[in-house]
Design brief:
The protein has 457 residues and is α/β, with parallel strands linked by helices. The chain has 18 helices and 16 strands. The protein has 2 domains: 228 residues, Rossmann fold (3-Layer(aba) Sandwich), CATH 3.40.50; 212 residues, L-fuculose-1-phosphate Aldolase (3-Layer(aba) Sandwich), CATH 3.40.225.
């Protein structure tokens, strides 16, 4: 299985890959689709200063912070400018570089130099409106197209050496079925056909093939990179065991991602107990894009027995293990950087329980704060252990200057707990403007339990 990083084109966003992404994930691959600054769900961040270097940094950061390696890096259209810069900055992390009907710049060239972005070349406005398309664009996508920062099209790229001198494979996929010729991409593909360093292939569906022919595109990827489709890559391995436990982690991760309670990067890690001395844990540091193959089996001392861990996941294993060691009743542990809850962690303040929804989940005592220690270090684990011992019966710990560690009997219960904690934190922080949230009355937990029992079947 492989790790894909898919970079969208101008006037687009991560949403452009919404039909491709699930097909690759269903095939067992890990997929990241970062939105470039000023585009998609990050359109509110557009400024005149956003340039090509900004977009290169966007993707480089996604690769670095997720600790991705042996990746298949794909750039569509304007995304070719971006992936070229990324490949120059971090070639050691790339296994295959793919240009999908994309601009391919040489050192010192901008997209304007290559003939692209026509509507922006003659304008002084820092925003470039979407080009009229000769291909049909459905209303859903049309509503999400936004202006593109002009500086990204005008800035020239600077490469330390030609990409052909790098060790990764090079592939150019040119679209067929366009209503009119596209000299930018057709001529590039024709030029590369005679270059032994390049593989050139065709894909039907026009320039917008990521929306009009996603199945064909995924089949082509599988054909181009067969060893990645059937072998080990990055954090993945063969998921031969614990099918139900793997599915429980994936289902809970999906609930957390869709609920919007995670940080912008969807950072987090999740585990389930396997008997008395083992656990199954996410091998990559994002709860988005997990598959059965990205999970690893470890003993509670951190020794990997099946699968692989990225370094960012290996760091936090002891955080999960200490909960299982101290609390035999716990079956699942999840760590997130949920913003509202983490605000209390940043302030080193225990989070009070003023929200009835938490009482209904059996949470009635403030969430304690474990002092800061380097992520996953012996100090941080010791502080977590102390917080649990000093607060028997607690179901979560705030990690000072870091985030949240929560646990429950199973994965879905832990996910619902995190959602309720994030809701409660948001409401309490907002209530601060009205004089602050108030304590629940004494005996509220017992009253809630009695009331719930009346309606239990």
């Amino acid at each position: 299985m492989a790790t894909y990083v898919l970079v969208h084109g101008a006037w687009g966003g991560s949403y452009g890959w919404r039909l491709v992404r699930p097909l690759l994930q269903k095939a067992g691959h890990t997929v990241f689709t970062p939105s470039l600054t000023g585009q998609g769900e990050r359109s509110h961040l557009a400024t005149p200063e956003v340039n090509l270097s900004t977009h290169i940094q966007d993707v480089s950061n996604a690769i670095w912070y997720e600790d991705l390696s042996d990746i298949i890096l794909v750039g569509h259209s304007y995304g070719g400018m971006v992936v070229t810069g990324v490949a120059d900055r971090m070639p050691e992390r790339i296994k295959h570089l793919v240009y999908l009907d994309a601009f391919l710049p040489a050192d010192g060239q901008s997209l304007f130099d290559l003939g692209g972005g026509r509507s922006g070349q003659q304008s002084d406005d820092w925003r470039v409106p979407p080009l009229p398309s000769s291909e049909p664009i459905d209303a859903w996508r049309a509503a999400r197209r936004v202006y593109h920062p002009r500086a990204t099209l005008a800035e020239k790229i600077h490469l330390s050496q030609p990409i052909e001198s790098r060790p990764f494979s090079l592939t150019y996929i040119v679209a067929t079925g366009r209503p009119d010729p596209s000299p930018f991409f057709d001529n590039c593909a024709e030029r590369l056909r005679s270059n032994p360093r390049w593989t050139v292939r065709e894909i039907s569906g026009g320039h917008g093939m990521i929306g009009t022919n996603p199945d064909g595109l995924v089949r082509l990827f599988e054909e181009l990179f067969p060893s990645d489709a059937h072998g080990s890559n990055g954090v993945v391995s063969r998921p031969s065991t614990f099918a139900a436990e793997r599915e429980s982690i994936l289902s809970a991760a999906d609930v957390l991602v869709r609920s919007g309670v995670l940080s912008h990067s969807n950072h987090g890690n999740s585990s389930v107990r396997l008997g008395d001395d083992r656990m199954l844990i996410t091998g990559a540091s994002s709860l988005y894009g997990q598959t059965p193959e990205t999970l690893a089996v470890l003993d509670l001392e951190g020794n990997v027995q099946e699968g692989r861990l990225q370094s960012t996941s290996a760091e936090i294993v002891r955080m999960h293990a200490i909960v299982y060691k101290l609390r035999p009743d716990v079956g699942a542990v999840i760590h997130t950087h949920s913003p509202m809850v983490s605000t209390y962690a940043m302030a080193h303040q225990p989070m009070p329980i003023h929200y009835e929804g938490l009482l209904r989940m059996g949470v009635h005592m403030p969430v304690p704060v474990a002092p800061w220690g380097p992520r996953g270090s012996r100090e941080s684990v010791m502080y977590i252990e102390n917080a649990i011992r000093e607060n028997p019966g607690c179901s979560a710990v705030l990690l000072a200057n870091h985030g949240l560690l929560a646990w429950a009997k199973d994965q879905m219960s832990a996910a619902r707990l995190i959602i309720s904690l994030e809701e409660a934190a948001e409401m309490m922080l907002r209530a601060a403007h009205l004089g602050g949230s108030k304590d629940l009355p004494a005996g509220a937990l017992d009253q809630v339990r009695q009331h719930m029992a009346q309606f239990a079947h």
